[in-house]
Write a structure and sequence with these properties.
The complex is a heterodimer of chains A (115) and B (111).
Chain A (H helix, E strand, L loop, with lengths): L4 E3 L2 E4 L5 E6 L6 E8 L3 E9 L2 E4 L8 E7 L2 E6 L8 E8 L9 E2 L3 E5 L1
Parallel strand pairs in A: 2-11
Antiparallel strand pairs in A: 1-3, 3-8, 4-5, 4-9, 5-6, 7-8, 9-10, 9-11
Chain B lengths: L3 E2 L5 E4 L4 E7 L4 E9 L6 E6 L3 E5 L2 E6 L4 E6 L8 E9 L5 E3 L3 E6 L1
Classes of the chains: A mainly beta (115), B mainly beta (111).
Chain lengths: 115, 111
């Protein structure tokens, strides 16, 4: 059974460019999470969806960031325009329907470098 | 004060020793606690979860929770070099799906 799939695995871009990160959650999982990990701030939740609906986007740093989930098997995180401080590893995770004990399964991550 | 605090380490232990990793949290309503392991360049993977005060054992791993003191710990018995990784503590509040992570403790197990 395939795990969470993310693409691209690595992205190098120049400041000001648009960046789109993609995620395919585990089939049957109802929750999808986008995280950002940096050395300074650790692993931070940006936004999460339940049944394709955004539930909490309080972690989205600013209007340059947007996320969509058009269907149960696909989500995007877009940064426009990108800035060097956006350089980080971005993880997507998914979990089954609620419960206090639901495990979040992480994808391999996208390492973003903004020059 | 950070919501979830961990000593960044590195914590160095010899092979075969017990590694003790600690985590404190600030929100008293936190109800679920998780330990994730993250190898360098890889994604986090869940190794233990705990919800009730006391100890929970799974193989070489024991999670300990003390809600009154707001701390959770992870013990790794018979540490192996393959246990060398960063260990992330995460907490979740009742009714919410959001996990709040600490910055992690790096563990180094020397042969």
């Amino acid at each position: 059974d395939a795990g969470v799939i993310q693409s691209p695995r690595h992205e190098v871009t120049e400041m000001g460019q648009e960046v789109t990160l993609r995620c395919k959650p585990i089939s049957g999982h109802d929750y999808l999470f986008w995280y950002r990990q940096t050395m300074m701030r650790g692993l931070e939740l940006l936004i999460y969806f339940n049944n394709n609906v955004p539930i909490d986007d309080s972690g989205m740093p600013e209007d340059r960031f947007s996320a969509k989930m058009p269907n149960a098997s696909f989500s995007t995180l877009k940064i426009q325009p990108s800035e060097p401080r956006d350089s980080a590893v971005y993880f997507c995770a998914s979990s089954e329907l609620a419960g206090e004990y639901n495990e979040q399964f992480f994808g391999p991550g996208t390492r973003l470098t903004v020059l | 004060q950070k919501e979830v605090e961990q000593n960044s380490g590195p914590l160095s232990v010899p092979e075969g020793a017990i590694a003790s990793l600690n985590c404190t949290y600030s929100d008293r309503v936190s109800q679920s606690f998780f330990w994730y392991r993250q190898y360098s360049g890889k994604s986090p993977e869940l190794i233990m979860s705990i919800y009730s005060n006391g100890d929970k054992e799974d193989g070489r791993f024991t999670a300990q929770l003390n809600k009154a003191s707001q701390y959770v710990s992870l013990l790794i018995r018979d540490s192996q070099p393959s246990d060398s990784a960063t260990y992330l503590c995460a907490v979740k509040n009742t009714g919410f799906q959001k996990l709040v992570f600490g910055t992690g403790t790096r563990l180094l197990v020397s042969p």
